[in-house]
Amino acid sequence: MAEIARLRNVAFVGPHHAGKTTLVEAVLSYCGAIGRRGTIAEGTTVTDHEPECIAHAESTTVGFAHCSNNDIAITIVDTPGFIDFFEETKMALAGVDAAVVVVDAEPSRISQTQGLIDYLEALHLPHLFVVNKMDRPGADFESTLLALQQAYGRHVVAEQWPIGAAENFSGYVDLATMSAWTFADGTERQGTMPGQAPERAGRARAELLEAMADFDDHLMEELLEGLEPPADEVERDLCAECAHDQIVPVLVASAANGAGIPALVRAIEHWFPSPLDAPHVDAEGREIVADAQAPAVLRVIKTSIHPQSGKLSVVRVLCGTIDADATLTDLDRGAEKVRSGGLYRLQGKKQEPLPQAGPGAIVAIARLENVSTGDTLTANGHRVLLPRTAIAEPVFALAVKPRERIDEAKISLVLAKAIDEDPSLRLEREPVTHELLLLGNGEQHVAIALERLARKYKVDLESHSPAIPYLETITTGTEIHSRYKHQTGGHGQFADVWLRFEPRPRGAGVSFESRIVGGVVPRQFIPAVEKGVHEALARGPAGYPVADVHVTLFDGQYHDVDSSEQAFKTAAGMAVREALAKCGPILLEPIARVSVTQPTAFTSAVIAQLTGKRGQILGMNPSDRAGFDIVEADVPQVELSRYITELRTATQGLGTYAWRHERYDPAPANRVGPKAAVS
Length: 679
Ligand SMILES: Nc1nc2c(ncn2[C@@H]2O[C@H](COP(=O)(O)OP(=O)(O)O)[C@@H](O)[C@H]2O)c(=O)[nH]1
Ligand SMILES: [Mg+2]
What we know:
Layout: E1 7-13, H1 20-30, H2 51-56, E2 63-69, E3 72-78, H3 86-93, E4 98-104, H4 114-123, E5 127-132, H5 141-152, E6 156-158, E7 160-163, E8 171-174, E9 179-184, E10 187-191, H6 197-213, H7 217-224, H8 231-243, E11 248-252, H9 261-271, E12 280-281, E13 287-288, E14 297-306, E15 310-319, E16 322-323, E17 327-330, E18 336-339, E19 343-347, E20 350-353, E21 356-357, E22 362-366, E23 376-379, E24 396-402, H10 408-421, E25 426-429, E26 436-440, H11 443-457, E27 461-464, E28 471-473, E29 478-487, E30 492-503, E31 510-514, H12 526-537, E32 549-557, H13 565-582, E33 586-599, H14 603-612, E34 616-622, E35 628-636, H15 643-650, E36 656-666
Parallel strand pairs: 1-3, 1-4, 4-5, 5-11, 6-11, 31-32
Antiparallel strand pairs: 2-3, 7-8, 8-9, 9-10, 12-13, 14-15, 14-23, 15-22, 16-21, 17-18, 17-23, 19-20, 19-22, 24-26, 24-27, 25-26, 28-33, 29-30, 30-32, 33-35, 33-36, 34-35
Helix pairs in contact: 1-9, 6-7, 12-13
């Protein structure tokens, strides 16, 4: 086991496609952990090894890798950038001590990082920015830096200034030491400062020092007196201030060309804290010191299930030491005891067996049944409560059913495994339509989960937008006389009822009352009439349940021999069907109350979008989150099936919404055709 002070646990985060996975690959290659660098195009990178990642040429789940340099052991958590997978990223972030935020050298994309940076800041997780793709035509470091500073403040400062851009991107000036470095064959060499560079780099250095001086009185004094601080002091301050999340340095890179990698690895080694300097806290805010002798405390940060070899739980060891066959207590599952089926270090899909793991390690434990991502595991029943990562409510659903007739029980079992792997998914049975819904954080999230299930468990699932739970009702009242008379051989069937139908207020439901006097319908048959009414109202002329109707049984006849419960039930059902046709039946559609949160700049776009969905805007207020507004509206549920995707498109991925069922309103006549059966 490596000495704790020599460990670094780093997540690579940032928007979709910024180059995180490519950068991780370049770091692994530079540190000698892998031979040839894999590429996204060939599907050969270490961390994008899942078949779904390769098929979509993007990270669809969290990946793990490790390398070492200068005797520092670095564990890397590569995360998906797509907003749909942010919940998984959040759970993995609970296991690292710092983050590399990878962004494009493209200022207009910086706003997409806001949710992520807000999250890192709330965690006080030390981080730095890498402005990647500096080799791309139009790469613009200065504007990107400015956009970062405008979004996140002046403690975000350049520590490097690029030399050239696009096809001329050839190196950088290190602003702490004011030395120029040029890229050569995956390494970098000290060079001479080219023409324009010193002046611009000098100003950037002054900005860096000023930002750092905010946290360091000695440096402040030196600057005020016009003294040049020594390079080793600058480096020391930078380490301390980055490790304490005071300064957020900005670096440059071209991951595809391996440019900027040595400096990034150096930054991870020097500026980011080891587990000793980044203590995690329990739910009461008490520090958990990374002590190898303490009773073990682990947090599960990712779960994956392999159909053959079983479950793998990736854990961060916060303190203590565990063996490969350790028995652990799952404090989130009623202190259930679980036994490790093997301990591994992950290099992408490769599992390297380990005899032991100590504080700071990120390792995979095999076959921990009934253990989920986010759980706290401890040795010897030691009780420690860790704060749980809050998971956002799902915002997208698909109805799923097997394409072929296999039993429902197997489908539920398989879907439960998907949720076991990813607790931000949810499974629900829709109470009105009875469809099985898989819910998640966006179209991609749910679609990829289904792809994964199809691959792993060979189940062919059909999915579609959930059916809308429409209802039907009547708009006028009527009285119906219904007689059921049937003569077959011996015994006949006879029932005669008079039923009154009246509309009830919206939301009042169905009610039944008997006003029979004098026993014209004997008491024992009245429940059969009521049952016949309810059964017939379960499916109106358009196929949906009928709501908000009051039915009164007020007269009838019977026959001593031929009347039966069945006959009265049948007569009541006939009456209902006749009444529904006569009483101006209409369709009721569910209306959702939505609460949309988006940056103020997008508020009018959000309102326009909601209005276009027949939404009724109820109000607009500033959110608790600075720079964000909340719009409240009532919107027909049928308009919301893809709303999360449309909202994200309209708000650069920053809009979110929550909804709940509010009421039923009459549906506009042209909106719904005859419907598929609701069983
Ligand atoms: N030109 C250029 N392309 C890059 C660079 N880094 C990544 N890419 C490409 O950008 C795409 C997205 O990269 P990927 O590593 O999957 O990004 P991620 O979504 O952040 O993990 C891939 O096609 C990469 O080959 C870079 O520095 N320069
Ligand atoms: Mg990726």
